[in-house]
Amino acid sequence: MLALAGYPLGQRFRFFDTVEDAVAGQLAELRVGAYDDLEALSHFAEGLELVTYEFENVPVAAARFLAERVPVFPPPQALEAAQDRLVEKTFFQGLGIPTPPFYPVSTRADLLQGVERIGFPCVLKTRTLGYDGKGQEVLRGPQDLERAWTSLGGQPLILEGFVEFERELSVLAVRGRSGELAFYPLVENHHHGGILRKSLAPAPGLSPQLQAQAEDYARQVLERLEYVGVLAIELFEAEGRLMANEMAPRVHNSGHWSLEGAETSQFENHLRAVLGLPLGSTQVRGHAAMLNLIGFQPDFARILEVREAHLHWYGKEVRPGRKVGHVNLRADTWEELGARLRALEDAIA
Amino acid sequence: MLALAGYPLGQRFRFFDTVEDAVAGQLAELRVGAYDDLEALSHFAEGLELVTYEFENVPVAAARFLAERVPVFPPPQALEAAQDRLVEKTFFQGLGIPTPPFYPVSTRADLLQGVERIGFPCVLKTRTLGYDGKGQEVLRGPQDLERAWTSLGGQPLILEGFVEFERELSVLAVRGRSGELAFYPLVENHHHGGILRKSLAPAPGLSPQLQAQAEDYARQVLERLEYVGVLAIELFEAEGRLMANEMAPRVHNSGHWSLEGAETSQFENHLRAVLGLPLGSTQVRGHAAMLNLIGFQPDFARILEVREAHLHWYGKEVRPGRKVGHVNLRADTWEELGARLRALEDAIA
């Protein structure tokens, strides 16, 4: 999606991935290699103007190695801050951004101490490489301790308080090379089984106060990290207040609605930012929704019969639980959007 | 632009062009060959689901040869009707669609007879292969006869009445494989030196009557040709009436505004049509404008500073008089659009 947004900006692309069948290879030259293959990385960087990434688990060492050769945006320190849940939450707290309570866990003793501090329910998570709900165990009471430890013990962990939030939101923010800032309206996200299923933008009932709060948090993160590009922060809303859950230093699934739902998509704005071009308007066009297509190929014709449904199929092999596309919807009013969303859900079901 | 719109619909592409540096080659496999190289065409068609084109001077023979192997949309008879100005105008008249007066010219005697019938001013044009004002000579009086004949004589020509039109418009229409129809609002086009410079959509002051008239003409053309895909008809408006000038059996420069200005772009709708998918909404989003970038590379940053300016750079080598990109603008009101257009024209100047 970044490349599709980048060709009209006059850009050419070269991709690096660890697997041969990466779909980006359909759009431009694909170099395949391991992230620790310095020779491959070095060849990859040759002749490039800059490097960006859309996967937050790119090893920091690889990003730093590339950054010695070409500009890398977002900067490697953003990857570093986002890859480890403990570092990330400590970073949020250092900026005065509320988070759920947390406790680092390396040993079984740490776990017991953490539970004592935080109380049940709580969630034990791996500090690194978790995504889409993987590497997490919910502890509702003492009976869950053993299962959680057996499942996750032996690696760096973090125990987090289980927040009784009202809803999950995310803020998509952009910072240009000159420091210019732009923010998309807060998005309401619906997960199931730890995977994002649906986003609504702007978040229903969004107040200017909540938006201002989110923008203030995002601004602090962007500026502290000297960030360039699109950043997503996932938030919990509870009693009208926001708490940061995690951040992703890249274009984000909860910003995919912007392809048709905003004046400038997150993909175009990410590229404008890293290229040092002026940022585009983040204004939402009425009301937008995004539905992920996960683990199956729907009937495209049935989807496109829904008014203002736009298909984004990724060209990936369909596998259970894999995000293989999404559908964006747009409408002038919430009522219209609701009706179209129901029609779309029927078409997909 | 068709390919960029097609990837999200799950499509893969193979291109055929007569030149090695065709920009489509940046996006997918490019086969290079002559249009009369049947072996090259035959290899090109192997394994394809269907063929479409975005150049109206593809030889009809090549399209027919391919159509024996795979479905070709728009159908070759549309190319045939559009490639020869005499056939085209006769076709319009056969459907009751008004055109400027015309007279076929093969000899000098025909030219004199034509001038007698039509009167001055008139325009002598080649019947085939004309585009962007090439292959045309305006005759304002008898003194121009010799120059025009020297310049164009010796090939099939057509003499046309020079219409004192108020403005040039175009209608973009789509017909799906099932016969489903959709129409974009009439566009007002501004040419200079025979080349399209600017389009405004919808055409300022557009009345429902004029739109209905244009749609009626387009519908007749689409249905008579059993057309599939996007078709553009260029029209003259004079005294509240429309006259057909020419048609293009393809996505059209005067429809480029639809990328950000319509709910569904002409490129996506062309693909939906040829793929047999439901057509998307052609509703315009407020007011849109398109400015062509011709023969020079502007400062991208200056363009993108203009609110809601979207750059579409084609990645072509810049040459004098060559269309190398365009900029789309959008606004909620005409006043806003006018202000942004002035800012954009300043940025480009």
From TrEMBL, chains A, B:
<dbReference type="GO" id="GO:0005829">
    <property type="term" value="C:cytosol"/>
</dbReference>
<protein>
    <recommendedName>
        <fullName>N5-carboxyaminoimidazole ribonucleotide synthase</fullName>
        <ecNumber>6.3.4.18</ecNumber>
    </recommendedName>
</protein>
<dbReference type="InterPro" id="IPR040686">
    <property type="entry name" value="PurK_C"/>
</dbReference>
<dbReference type="Pfam" id="PF02222">
    <property type="entry name" value="ATP-grasp"/>
</dbReference>
<dbReference type="InterPro" id="IPR016185">
    <property type="entry name" value="PreATP-grasp_dom_sf"/>
</dbReference>
<dbReference type="InterPro" id="IPR011054">
    <property type="entry name" value="Rudment_hybrid_motif"/>
</dbReference>
<dbReference type="Pfam" id="PF17769">
    <property type="entry name" value="PurK_C"/>
</dbReference>
<dbReference type="InterPro" id="IPR011761">
    <property type="entry name" value="ATP-grasp"/>
</dbReference>
<feature type="binding site">
    <location>
        <position position="191"/>
    </location>
    <ligand>
        <name>ATP</name>
    </ligand>
</feature>
<dbReference type="InterPro" id="IPR005875">
    <property type="entry name" value="PurK"/>
</dbReference>
<feature type="binding site">
    <location>
        <begin position="160"/>
        <end position="163"/>
    </location>
    <ligand>
        <name>ATP</name>
    </ligand>
</feature>
<dbReference type="InterPro" id="IPR054350">
    <property type="entry name" value="PurT/PurK_preATP-grasp"/>
</dbReference>
<dbReference type="GO" id="GO:0004638">
    <property type="term" value="F:phosphoribosylaminoimidazole carboxylase activity"/>
</dbReference>
<dbReference type="GO" id="GO:0034028">
    <property type="term" value="F:5-(carboxyamino)imidazole ribonucleotide synthase activity"/>
</dbReference>
<keyword id="KW-0067">ATP-binding</keyword>
<feature type="binding site">
    <location>
        <position position="85"/>
    </location>
    <ligand>
        <name>ATP</name>
    </ligand>
</feature>
<comment type="subunit">
    <text>Homodimer.</text>
</comment>
<dbReference type="GO" id="GO:0005524">
    <property type="term" value="F:ATP binding"/>
</dbReference>
<dbReference type="GO" id="GO:0006189">
    <property type="term" value="P:'de novo' IMP biosynthetic process"/>
</dbReference>
<dbReference type="InterPro" id="IPR003135">
    <property type="entry name" value="ATP-grasp_carboxylate-amine"/>
</dbReference>
<comment type="pathway">
    <text>Purine metabolism; IMP biosynthesis via de novo pathway; 5-amino-1-(5-phospho-D-ribosyl)imidazole-4-carboxylate from 5-amino-1-(5-phospho-D-ribosyl)imidazole (N5-CAIR route): step 1/2.</text>
</comment>
<feature type="binding site">
    <location>
        <begin position="245"/>
        <end position="246"/>
    </location>
    <ligand>
        <name>ATP</name>
    </ligand>
</feature>
<keyword id="KW-0658">Purine biosynthesis</keyword>
<comment type="function">
    <text>Catalyzes the ATP-dependent conversion of 5-aminoimidazole ribonucleotide (AIR) and HCO(3)(-) to N5-carboxyaminoimidazole ribonucleotide (N5-CAIR).</text>
</comment>
<dbReference type="Pfam" id="PF22660">
    <property type="entry name" value="RS_preATP-grasp-like"/>
</dbReference>
<feature type="domain" description="ATP-grasp">
    <location>
        <begin position="89"/>
        <end position="275"/>
    </location>
</feature>
<keyword id="KW-0547">Nucleotide-binding</keyword>
<feature type="binding site">
    <location>
        <position position="125"/>
    </location>
    <ligand>
        <name>ATP</name>
    </ligand>
</feature>
<feature type="binding site">
    <location>
        <begin position="130"/>
        <end position="136"/>
    </location>
    <ligand>
        <name>ATP</name>
    </ligand>
</feature>
<keyword id="KW-0436">Ligase</keyword>
<comment type="similarity">
    <text>Belongs to the PurK/PurT family.</text>
</comment>
<dbReference type="GO" id="GO:0046872">
    <property type="term" value="F:metal ion binding"/>
</dbReference>
<feature type="binding site">
    <location>
        <position position="168"/>
    </location>
    <ligand>
        <name>ATP</name>
    </ligand>
</feature>
<dbReference type="InterPro" id="IPR013815">
    <property type="entry name" value="ATP_grasp_subdomain_1"/>
</dbReference>
<comment type="function">
    <text>Catalyzes the ATP-dependent conversion of 5-aminoimidazole ribonucleotide (AIR) and HCO(3)- to N5-carboxyaminoimidazole ribonucleotide (N5-CAIR).</text>
</comment>
